[in-house]
Queue: 2 jobs
Job 1
Amino acid sequence: MGLWTNGDYKIYVELSVLEADFRDVYKSYINVSTNRKNMDTVTVNLYKATAERYLFVAEQLKVAKNGFDLRNLVIYFGLDNEQQNKGDSFIVESYIRQLVERGNAALFYKGNRIFTLKKIMQLEGTGVGFGYEVRIYFDNAENYAFKYYIHNNW
């Protein structure tokens, strides 16, 4: 089991599930980069660099021990970027969140096993700059397991 910690929340997920998903994404990016003859080399390199990151993370998960800190995984789209190589990847967090939402993760809050969470969406901004801040939490929206932003544009 891998561990994703956020404040009072501890989320445990099967490493093999993430590994399989990441290997599938790797294959998809490689297929796109090799089968689309009309792509320029910059685009091909973007896909290949992203694919290699997915493969590297899948390999890390394959040999990871129980309790592996999933925040150490780094996945992002694009060429190598020193800032994004520091960990705490939004893509990994999105996968963890999806597993939680589907009931495929063990969720603990303040040391107690919980089975349900709440979600609140708050409108932010106006005009073309509006969107929603989403928080997923147990009993206090300020103490959330996940927080992300959905931007609505034209």
Job 2
Amino acid sequence: MMENERKSYEKLNKILLIENVKIAIHIPSLNIIPEEFIELKYLLEAFQIKQKTIDSTKHMLEENFTENINNFDKNVDTLFNKHINKPLYLVAAGPPLDKNIQELAKVKDNGIILSVGRAVKSLLSAGITPDYIIITDLSEYLYDMQLKGLDIDVPIVVLSTCDKNVMKKYKGFKYIAL
């Protein structure tokens, strides 16, 4: 790709990242973009997906945000320098966790374990209590599926637009990421 084309793609990408930009993308035209402009096609497809996601979830995101900013204990930025020189282990659910959960038990005291909500029950079943739980999903059933009934005292870090039920119902300390 020529340098001037690269700069054009970078400029277009910056424009597409500006909030409140609305662009109508004609799908049949997108599908006939020649191979030599494949990066342009990918850029426009990614923008279209982002735009559709925002449009379809906007109401829920706004509702969750409004509720969540009234139900937290501290902002997550208070944690930013708390665990300097300690390794952080971000734990997600799935086959890699199942395969390596005993290795994680060995390093527990030597680092900080951050668990996504879906992995918490697996960790607890293996006798591992995470140091923090991280929730980012806006699904309204998230609390009931992942956290309901847990009797643990683990701080939770939530994205400001996550499921509002997490902030309302979780009994532990709640950090918010704004």
